[in-house]
Design a protein that fits this description.
Number of helices: 0
Number of strands: 11
Shape: globular
Strand content: over 45%
Length: 114
């Protein structure tokens, strides 16, 4: 069982930056694929970013390419999402996820507003 806890969300102005963190408990973190998803009010949860277990491969949703960067620190059992040039459309609850074993965090709210 993997437990995931997100943090780092908040209120930011358009054009600003935030860094989300996801802490994982349990063994075997270095072998896990990690992903970020988000869910805006009234919308379905959507994929944001992916990082392979070796960090050699990353992938992003088209709407965040060039603005968001996913990374991980296996020594700390952490995965991060650096979000730059935020837009009001990025407002959502952001979730950390590993698909195998399937685990979700509780989410962290990101609000982009002036």
């Amino acid at each position: 069982q993997v437990r995931l806890v997100e943090s780092g969300g908040g209120l930011v102005q358009p054009g600003g930056s935030l860094r989300l963190s996801c802490a994982s408990s349990g063994s075997g973190f270095s072998g896990l694929v990690m992903r970020w998803f988000r869910q805006a009010p009234g919308k379905e949860r959507e994929f944001v970013a992916y990082i392979s277990s070796t960090s050699k491969s990353t992938n992003y949703a088209h709407f965040v390419k060039g603005r968001f960067t996913i990374s991980r620190d296996d020594a700390k059992n952490m995965v991060y999402l650096q979000m730059n040039n935020l837009e009001p459309e990025d407002t959502a609850v952001y979730y950390c996820n590993t698909p195998m074993p399937a685990s979700w965090g509780q989410g962290t709210q990101v609000t982009v507003s002036s």
